[in-house]
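Our preliminary data section would be incomplete without showing what the modeling component actually yields. Below, a chain of 261 amino acids is followed by its predicted structure, encoded as tokens that our downstream tools consume directly.
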Amino acid sequence: MRKLIIPFIVLFVLVISCKTAPKAVVTNPKTFIEKIQAVFPKAEISETKNFEGFKATYQVILEEPLDHSDLSKGTFKHYVYLSHNGFNLPTVLETEGYQVYPGTKEMSKILKGNQVLVEYRFYGKSRPEPTPWEYLKNDQAIEDYHNIVTRLKTLYTGKWISSGISKGGETTLIYKSKYPNDVDVAVPYVAPLINTQEDPRTTQHINSVGTPECRAKVTRFQRLLLEKKIAVQKEIQAYATAKNMSFTKVSIEEALEYAAL
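Predicted structure:
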């Protein structure tokens, strides 16, 4: 009986300690920004709308090298969102695969520490104009994350956890494989690993998922969209006008073709 009671007492003490441990509060935002500015001297830092579960959230716009192997190539503005609770608490790095979707991620809700959201280079606001697409590569993106984490770890001394969903999960795996000591734990969600530029598994999946009847209906609908594309484009334009939306990266016709695909 005594053997059962002792582990229970230890667990109870740990739980109570977790609940009552004080969190560091950002009492002076100016001082906090100065600390981040010291880590990223050229960054634009501003307090922004706070995410749920944090003391404060800051937008950090970095001057990120286009080419980490040749700094003479210039930089681009790289958007990062830093949510703070305490310098000695766990920090979750969310390796986005595309643009940033601001908010509190699942791992951050579980660990109740800090969160760093990093937009993938050349997506969302982190896209230079004109865009030098030759630098949109995983090896460059991984250097982005390594650069950010290395600097922030001088402030955030707790455990580091990386996480990401879909292409962000893939990035989590690649990052952990190249810099295994940057983070203590990697928690990828979904994480598809692409074999080739034209991965045949996607087509194989689409041609086998569901029933033949269902797949035939989808194909008929796709053909109908493209056969009636002039009429559909007019509807899209009317909707965009009503919602004050514009197509700046691709035309309505191209967007429709992607959507039909």
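Residues 1-27 have pLDDT under 50 and may be disordered. Residues 2-20 form the longest helix (19 residues). Preliminary results of this kind motivate Aim 1 of the renewal.
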